[in-house]
Known about the structure:
Blueprint: H1 11-24, H2 28-35, H3 39-48, H4 54-63, H5 69-72, H6 75-78, H7 81-92, H8 96-135
Helix pairs in contact: 1-3, 2-3
Amino acid sequence: MNQDERRFDFHGLGLALKQAREEKGWTQAYVAELVGKTDRTIMNIENKGQRPSFNLFFKLVTLFDISVDQFFYTEGQRGENSCRKHIDVLLSSMNEKELVVMEATAEGLKKARETEVQEVWLFCVSSMYWWKQSKHGLLH
């Protein structure tokens, strides 16, 4: 039987947990109480990259709504949808006012892209027009 013997580096998970915990204004002791562990365990996961049990890993990523793809897959393995997944996670944590700003930003980007495409199209059409005119000697 072929066993996968990769060792995962949990420092990234620790940093993500710490950031999420601090954003909520929670202490390590409070998180420890929520998941049934000691604050020392939470501190070691956050600061030393200590590997949690699967059950604790699941509780923590669920508690803080952290996407685990980044910890198991390399950039190439995650594919192009990883950016969309990350944006989804970020959007899920936003309030209604922040979502309105994000919606307006996305609409602005879409409009800018459409304008850019129209400008390129007009440039190409006018270039072809002038090229045809010069080819047939219609320009002076």
